[in-house]
Amino acid sequence: MYQLIKNGQVLIDGQLQKRDIAIDATGQITAIEPTITAVPTDPETIYDAHGHFVSAGLIDGHVHFRDPGFTTKETLKTGSAAVAHGGFTSVIAMPNLRPVPDNLLDFKTLVARNQAETSVHTYQFAPITNELTEQTIVDMSAFKAAGAAGFTNDGHGVQTAQTMYQAMQMAAQINMPIVAHVEDESLVNGGVIHDGQAAKKLGIPGIASVSESAQVARDIELARATSVHYHICHISTKETVNLVRRAKKDGLNVTCEVTPHHLLLDDSAITSDNAMLKMNPPLRTLADRQALWAGLMDGTIDIIATDHAPHTTEEKQQSLLKAPFGIVGSETAFSLLYTHLVANGPFSLAQLTSWLTTNPAHVFNLPHAGQLAVGQPADLAVFNLTDTTTIDANTFLSKGHNTPFIGEAVQGDTLLTLVAGQIAYQKE
Ligand SMILES: NC(=O)N[C@@H](CC(=O)O)C(=O)O
Ligand SMILES: [Zn+2]
Ligand SMILES: [Zn+2]
User: Fold this and answer.
1) Where does this protein hold Zn(2+) 1 (predicted)?
2) Which of 84, 139, 339, 346 is deepest in the core (most CB within 10 A)?
3) Residues 6 or more apart from 422 whose CB is under 8 A from it?
């Protein structure tokens, strides 16, 4: 473990300033000062950040660790190593596992395994309904008591208004968020990419934007009627941005997330039958992408979450029609976002870090995450914002190499990640 981080650059009131950070034996930050002269006796416990950016540890509110059930894709060990490599120190894991942890025994076992087997703070979402697809809603209070961070059927939309309405009433009563994968299956029509130019050109069935936005519109009205905290996963369409903007204006407790890939890519990138560009929701149009940037700019979109969705190389080498939906995101998120949104984009480093630290801590009520401050756990990440590196799957700690961003030149490589003072990742 490290007890002193020297010569870091820390964001203070939106500006980078030189700071040293002292960490005690319990992993708490005890001082953040321009210069700390009380140096630990063991030189091994001193890390020289050499003027690089020291951030509060990032928070990812949407990851798939695949364990139990799909451990050829990822395990708790490889998934958490991957997120630490990306500078994340807290994540919330999705329950689309096998078995689905829709009974208390399986859920408690999973929560205990998350604690024991991951190198970061791994929180866990519980299902809304049995098997993520049935109508029977789980005993939400019992799952809350067992540690659930919220309720989601991610991978599946809740298909009936009746089930969603009841789930929202129950969640509102116990003050827990409904975290929604929004997808009206009656509007999907066997689509695998966005129903637009690329689908037409390649002769591949498309997924219309209304399959997302129609369900968002329904759910916002149900949220208005129940006063629940309604959080929308991976929004992808301009219509959804508009609906959320209006809901917020109306004072509803509605929040949402966007992924790095929906911000950085659109369906013009799909020029051949390449399943690395297949994910759910699909990459939409340039106009949608611009609406997502505008949504970040005006606060309609609260957070960026990766939807880290590892699959095996064999699975993703299949055609767009056959391959599973999803791409990995943990190990590329910060550098891609820093490069395109900040270094070459209109956003500030302070804005980017707010979408990855303070905002997710607030949205998901994680009181000890997202702040680099005295008295808080030393969850932090050091990023090299100046040198350019190339995204290389050989450096990935995830089992999943399924990303279209391989070979991209980026700034923002992770140098060090500490979780409560312990080294979760360090670049060689
Ligand atoms: N996003 C995806 O394309 N896939 C996710 C499921 C999901 O997040 O809906 C997965 O579990 O693979
Ligand atoms: Zn989803
Ligand atoms: Zn997901």
Assistant:
1) 62, 64, 154, 307
2) 84
3) 1, 27, 119
**Contact between 196 and 285 (Cβ < 8 Å):** yes
Strand pairing category for 148-151 and 121-126: parallel
Kindly state if the Cβ of 154 falls inside 6 Å of ligand 1. yes
Q: What 8-state DSSP symbol labels residue 2? A: -
What's phi and psi for 408, nearest 5 deg? -75, 140
If we measure between CA atoms, which residue out of 396, 405, 302 comes closest to residue 356?
302
Residues of the chain where predicted confidence (pLDDT) is lower than 70: none
Q: What is the DSSP string of 41-68?
A: S-GGGEEE-TT-EEEEPEEEEEE---TT
Domains and CATH numbers, the chain: 4-53+376-426 (2.30.40.10), 58-363 (3.20.20.140)
Residue 64 CA: nearest ligand 1 atom is 11
The finding on whether 183 has its CB within 6 A of some atom of ligand 1 is no
User: Of all protein residues, whose CA lies closest to atom 3 belonging to ligand 1?
Assistant: 326
Say which residues have a Cβ less than 8 Å from residue 98's Cβ, sequence separation at least 6.
Answer: 68, 69, 70
Rounded Cα–Cα distance for residues 133 and 131 (Å): 5
Residues 6 or more apart in contact with residue 423 via CB below 8 angstroms? 1, 2, 416, 417
Q: Which two tokens stand for residue 113?
A: 């395994």
CA distance 63 to 265: 20
Distance between CA atoms of 422 and 142, rounded to whole angstroms? Answer: 32
Q: Which residue has the tokens 């939807």?
A: 307
Instruction: Say what the pTM is.
Output: 0.98
Catalytic positions, written as ranges? 307
pLDDT for res 254? 99
State the closest ligand 1 atom to the C-alpha of 62, by its place in the atom list counted from 1: 8
143 has binding-site annotation = no
The residues, ordered by sequence, that sit 6+ positions from 117 with a Cβ below 8 Å of its Cβ are 76, 77, 80
Residues 6+ apart with CB under 8 A from 185: 157, 159, 211
Look at residue 298 in the predicted model and tell me its pLDDT.
Answer: 98
